[in-house]
Design brief:
It is a single chain. The N and C termini lie far apart (about 75 Å). About 45% of the residues lie in helices and about 15% in strands. A hairpin with a 5-residue loop joins β1 and β2. The chain is built from four helices and four strands.
Length: about 140
């Protein structure tokens, strides 16, 4: 313990002798701690917290992978077969994400959208903020 106190006193004396270096060191530490904290906050919100859905641990994503390692999207017939024949899943939904040009009273912008099956919202256990969910007959 005595050697630690000796080292601490020696460090404080050295920092007092060069205030410019002290200011630079404290600033660098503050920037490093701030950057680490902000990165952790982002990762915590994206990776570590569960999805804001009822029972997110019961959701599964099923997809095919081609021999070259790329995702292979299911055909509608494969989805319908799974939805009709599955005894394991209580509900099955499909979605196909893509980009689309959207224009609302101005210049068109590229937006990420998805084509979804009518069973998506009930499968996720959520209600839309506005409007209504899709009716099964709209699932064409």
């Amino acid at each position: 313990m005595d050697s630690f106190l000796y080292d601490l006193r020696h460090a404080v004396r050295g920092l007092r002798r060069s205030p410019g270096f002290t200011l630079l060191a404290v600033g660098a530490l503050a920037l490093g701690i701030g950057a680490s904290s902000s990165i952790f906050c982002v990762l915590d919100g994206i990776l570590f917290r569960p999805l804001p859905l009822p029972q997110p641990e019961r959701l599964y994503a099923i997809h095919e992978v081609r021999p070259d390692g790329a995702d292979n999207w299911w055909s509608p017939a494969n989805y319908l077969d799974l939805a009709r024949e599955s005894r394991t899943f209580s509900s099955v939904a499909a979605f196909y994400p893509f980009e689309w040009n959207v224009s609302i009273g101005g210049e068109p912008e590229r937006a990420e959208v998805a084509a979804v099956s009518a069973s998506l919202f009930p499968t996720l256990g959520i209600q839309p903020a506005l409007g209504r969910i899709f009716a099964p007959e709209e699932d064409a």
